[in-house]
Amino acid sequence: MDTPQFDPQTCKDAIYSEEYIPLLIDYYGDFQLVIDKYNPVCYVILSPRQAIVYIYIGNASVISRFDTYRSIPKMYGLLDTSVIEETGVQRLRRQPYIDLYGQGVLIGFLDTGIDYRNPLFRNEDGTTRIVSIWDQTILTGTTPSEFPYGSEYTEEQINQALQSNNPLDIVPSIDENGHGTFMAGVAAGNIDEANDFSGIAPDAGIVVVKLRQARNKLREFFLVDQEVDCFAENDVLAAVSYLLKKAKQFTRPIVICFGVGTSAGDHNGSSPLSRYIDSVGYTAGVSFVCGTGNEGNRGHHYQSNTILSGANEEIEVNVGDGVSGFTTELWASTPALFAIGLTSPSGEVINEIQPRLGKKETVRFVLEKTVVTIVYFLVEEGSGDMLVFMRFAAPARGIWKIRAYNRGPMPSSFSMWLPLDNFIGNTTYFNRSEPDVTITDPGNALTIATVSVYNSQTDSIYIHSGRGFTRSGRVQPAVAAPGVEIFGPLLNNRFGRLTGSSVSAAVAAGIATLLMEWAVIQENDIDANSNAIRQYLVIGAKERDIVYPNREWGYGEIDIFSIFERLRS
Length: 569
Prior knowledge:
The protein is of the alpha+beta class.
């Protein structure tokens, strides 16, 4: 990695300033060409092909820099708000010849932080099991090397804090939300017999990144309210890079668990985050796990019919009261070419807007106060497919009609997605929606172990669980994991139950950690990587009386005990 050539304080100021925005850059060869083109105040190099640059835009809006879809960081939200027995972990613990508790493996979380004072994350002698915390929200501490913002707290500092009467004076990182603490507890919390609780990998080391909230300019561009938890893709990418560097520093295998996701993108694994995951997903000792999201039954995916060349199809979007705005994306495989027309709830018609390379059109409705921006990407650079990005600011209540005209040379179809339910609520949806192909990113990446959500009490899929496959038909999810009414740690040393996709991800990440211990630490498969861990999960999946692979269940229910039964048979 190149040594950054910028003033650290200037860089930190820019990262937290609303006058600068991050851009996600793909590059090949000499990074100086990127510097010459963008003149960034600072940058973070993620890999020999990906970087984040911070550029000055002053009072201008993000739309002024919206020349390439891929470069603008997308908005990621939280994927939600008895596990031991159900997933085969308890049966595994009863076997004297298999001793798996996560020993020697790191498990990484990028989320809302962690309550490091909770006894579930401490050894018997009171010291911490947390290797390090990078809190992206704190400006006053020491920044991590190669990441010029936030504050890093080491294991030694956390132990000093735990011995202090005022721990937060030494390590002021807290989890105000509780989401990250719950996930870490389910995946890797200690055995707590008094509360009848155990994390799945209670001996694993823990690494945490507390993500900073997305800057206001990105929220305004994507029309996400200020009070909603929302994280920018550049900070998520930096978090993944940090976790990987910690694993390398301590020469330990790592499982990285995602509790965040986005509905933006082509749903085919071509986002910058998915590409970054796949660029390291074949590295020995690295595994990625995420959930399918909670978008399956929200009405946020539209799948068109096959439309003849010259024909068109109308899409209805219902918008409720008090919706400040929303974005939607239309994706179609090359050589498709679609043009867009609009009809407002009052009947005002905007005729077909011709698609042209780099075309950006802003439409102001006379009878409503709505402003719609339409941007055509005839060939979106990450996927090679056509994208129409639409932004509805202050949309009037009622039915909005989007008409898609096939101006390509052959019959074509398209898919459209609305943002996460967290961002737009339950009153904005497609009147004719399709629950399939609703996995949130990065769950569409090639090497990640993506898990759907099922209810272990009713033995049924969770109604909002995201469904596969990817837009191209590649199989995700891999398996289904329990994620309904799961018992785990809340804030203030309490316990409670939560439901959602990130809970399933935490369950699966804990199991992946045990598999990584068996494979790498115990030297049964020292080259095991993210793709291999995914395949082990598939091998052990408990089948149901349905056709596999399945859009809801993947290859079946997750079960680590079955993996070893089948490997020895």
